[in-house]
UniProtKB/TrEMBL annotation:
It comes from the Bacteria. Residues 269-398 form the Oxidoreductase molybdopterin-binding domain. SUPFAM superfamilies: Oxidoreductase molybdopterin-binding domain. The chain crosses the membrane at residues 31-50, 70-89, 110-131, 143-162. It comes from Microlunatus phosphovorus (strain ATCC 700054 / DSM 10555 / JCM 9379 / NBRC 101784 / NCIMB 13414 / VKM Ac-1990 / NM-1). This is Oxidoreductase molybdopterin-binding domain-containing protein.
Length: 399
């Protein structure tokens, strides 16, 4: 009879482990679904930093908002890598069910799994490479990462819908019980919740199903603890996997892009440097003017899209003062331009972030280091470090 053990070719792969089970897979899947949901929502918040749309305001309060959400996004993404691998380990025997395409439901299950695995693999691998500042792929990381997030979530929801009976069965079954992913082929009921068929657990297993969950949770917990030190200062000594650490950088703040990488060393150190402010009443400021105007102080975090962040003491010129002098006001949109030749050359700021923005000349009591944006950089609350533009050369009051 089709689907029976006798009909399965002898060369077809089979599995004998009784550790894998529907109950174990369902619990791993639940954890992964939660992780993906957190990554998706915090990723959407992060993407708003890239949008210069007036209908989507960027609040200045809380000042540490981006620091929190992006830190969670990066940490959860890193933790998802081993979780995905464990989940795939728990289900890969189902790939070799015989016959492989027994029903329409089975075909849909395979198709949704293929799309999901492919999208997740690209998303996690390129996300990790982004943290390492390595872009061997030929596309815009931010655009693809954002678009692919919808593919991941969409295919995940479809896969959940198809597998919902198995998920309900697995979550409602004790780990010590439940059906086993093994060599046993499907039974005659194609709609059975069993992944492969029941087998008794071994008398002395190398590791129990509960042990798999404990080991996975412990490993993922270690990844989190050794990563979050890049955004939670007290845990910095444990940050063995942190890409950057707050204390390891000029003036106590990490550097995402150096002046040499941006190609601005000579221009930023030019004694004749001037800041051009363009508006109804245009004017320019020189280096000597900065020192006379830099009297405001603020304690604000700087938070990178790669997950690291640190709070610092800044001193400089309130941006609204310069905007008002140029003929603008609280409702103005302001474009700040950089000497940078390679990275983010300009960014816009408006609304409550503009009201509290600072053009920083000093960091932690010292004149800005060249790699931190000397002679002048933008610092604003709840704003990605990428858009706290360094090496300023021009400010345009747009409205």
């Amino acid at each position: 009879m089709p689907g029976s053990a006798a009909a399965r070719p002898t060369w077809w792969p089979h599995f004998t482990s009784t550790v894998r089970s529907t109950a174990l897979t369902a619990r791993l899947g639940r954890a992964l679904g939660i992780a993906f949901g957190i990554c998706f929502l915090t990723g959407l918040l992060s993407y708003t930093q890239y949008l210069s749309t007036s209908w989507l305001p960027k609040p200045a309060v809380p000042a540490w908002g981006y620091r929190l959400t992006q830190g969670i996004h990066v940490t959860t993404g890193l933790a998802s890598i081993p979780l995905v691998l464990i989940k795939l380990w728990s289900v890969y025997p189902t790939t070799f069910r015989w016959p492989p395409f027994r029903s329409v439901k089975r075909v849909l299950e395979i198709a949704s799994a293929v799309v999901l695995i492919a999208a997740v693999s690209v998303q996690l691998v390129t996300g990790l490479l982004n943290l390492l500042d390595w872009y061997p792929f030929g596309w815009d990381f931010v655009v693809v990462h954002y678009a692919l997030a919808y593919v991941v979530i969409g295919s995940l929801l479809i896969h959940i819908a198809i597998k919902l009976p198995d998920i309900r069965y697995g979550l409602g079954t004790k780990l010590a019980e439940g059906d086993v992913l093994s060599e046993v082929p499907w039974d005659e009921n194609p709609d059975s919740h069993s992944n492969a068929g029941p087998l008794p657990p071994p008398v002395t297993p190398g590791i129990s199903r509960r042990g798999v969950l404990v080991a996975a949770g412990t490993g993922i917990g270690l990844i989190v603890i050794t990563t979050v030190g890049q955004s939670i200062r007290p845990l910095e000594p444990l940050g063995l996997l942190a890409i950057r650490q707050p204390s390891k950088g000029w003036q106590g703040v990490p550097v995402s892009e150096t002046a040499a990488e941006a190609g601005v060393v000579e221009a930023a150190q030019d004694p004749a440097w001037q800041l051009e402010i363009v508006g109804p009443n245009p004017y320019v400021l020189g280096l000597a003017d900065l020192d006379a105007l830099a009297t405001a102080e603020a304690h604000l975090p700087v938070a990178a899209n790669k997950g690291w962040s640190v709070a610092a003491d800044w001193r400089g010129i309130p941006l609204p003062e310069l905007v008002e002098r140029a003929g603008g006001g609280p409702g103005s949109r302001v474009l700040v331009r950089s000497l940078d030749r390679t990275g983010i050359k300009s960014s816009q700021i408006w609304g409550s972030q503009l009201a509290q923005a600072l053009l920083a000349t000093h960091l932690n009591g010292e004149r800005l280091a060249l790699d931190h944006g000397y002679p002048l950089r933008l610092i604003a609350p709840n704003r990605a470090e990428l858009f706290c533009t360094k090496w300023l050369t021009r400010i345009e009051v747009l409205s």
